[in-house]
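Supplementary Methods S3. Input chains for the assembly prediction are listed below.
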Amino acid sequence: ARKMHRRNRPFRTEDLSRMMYNLSMTATEVVQKWRGEEEEEEDIEADEDDDFFKKPKTAQSGEDEDRYIPVYDYQELEEKWEDEENIEALKSRFAIGHASGKGGDED
Amino acid sequence: MSEPSGQPLIRFTGHRHLTTRLLLATLTGRAIRISQIRSSSHTHPGLTSAEVSFLRLLDAVTNGSSIEFSMTGTTLVYRPGLITGSAEGLGAIGGVVRHELHKECATRGVSWWLIPLCVLAPFSKGNVNVILHGEGCITGATPAGDVSADTVRTAILPLYRHFGIERNIELRILKRSCAPGPGKSAGGEVQLVFNHQVRLPKTLHLLNAGRVKRIRGVAYAVGVSGNNNARVIAAARGVLNKFVPDTYIYSDVSSAPLVPSNDRNNPSGKMKGAVGFGISLVAESSTHCFYSADVASPPSGGMPPEDIGKQAAYQLLEAIEKGGCVENTALDTMLCLMAMGSEDVGRVALGRDVAGSEDFVQLGRDVKEFTGSAWGLRDGAEDKEEVVVSVVGRGVGNVGRKIA
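Predicted structure tokens for the full assembly:
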């Protein structure tokens, strides 16, 4: 039970370092699992069911080329960055106004 | 070096991360075999023209490389040679390697060639001076997700400073071009001058991402009215001004590049290459970490400049929010250089989302295949927003400069 509990908490650094060199998982699976994005059991069952049909599908569907610029839903982003809360939260990452000199020296 | 030295071929499958793998193979001098390259595709199996072109470029800047394809191009064996750079008589004329990107290569932006080439350059025996040109050379951002050459110049090349590589590095954009529509040509031209070769890059300890102190950018309009630039810039500033007062975006208006028209009646005829506009934004932090964003008008057109400016600004904010010292675009560059450093532990802090990306995991695995050392991960010190990656350098560095 404890194990299950641990697994459900995403974004733990130890988990990533453990999974990173576990070659039985693909990189995509590692990332999904680490982010806690997928329900594993369901996926495994689905794989067993139609393994034969699924493979070519995944290979063809979607953008499976390397890319540098990430794909975003800009509609969503616009809403996100119109929100005052998000703007305020991000402002700590900037050196603003008079604090710019000070912030730079501290770091 | 290309002799089979008893070391077995390192085997990979699939077409993903091809440039990174070839890059690591060249740097470590290990021969690799990549199989099942798009073997499941019925329409385009095997290597794409862009990938073949990249192999040719590798061949041009190295001496003694051997590249073998299978009949269908789905299997590739690459035995790397010595990185010689633009040495006379080995592909270079007048100290410059001119590498033509053909029309079919227009699926990728020129940055796709440039970024790996830049990683090779510090380990070269001689100076590196490469001109990429031709009908497939796109300097702008592309729908395939390649950044613009401006971003390479302003956000990737300055990163080399962290490794003690900073002199005589320049990327000149000689002719701009945007992503062409299907069947059209681009016709851009860029020159990479990389004359600072090192024995070993310095060990990196970059744990503090600092604060963003300024934003710079380049808005480019190729063959269209410069008014588009003004509108893109105004929209981007509208979003970014809330955050940083020190925002400056250059405007670069150029005419459309001329490409051979391939008209039988007029063999010397020229026609205009792809037109369009776009913007590259780069945020610099107080500790010289860079975050970039790139948006360009789609080849089909029909996107107002305001949207492009805004999207670029949002993309930049998103990259800054992810945090860490390295953004996704620069991941390959930074971590490859760290892995090639002296036999010491280098550390770098990454944002959670950057470390949790597929590219990062795969890169870690590939590097382990080549160098045998795995990366260590632990939580960042202050708040748990970051992951600190420790990379042990390989300590071999530049084979060509060993004696010097």
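The CA atoms of residues 170 and 193 of chain B lie 5 Å apart. The mean pLDDT of chain B is 90.
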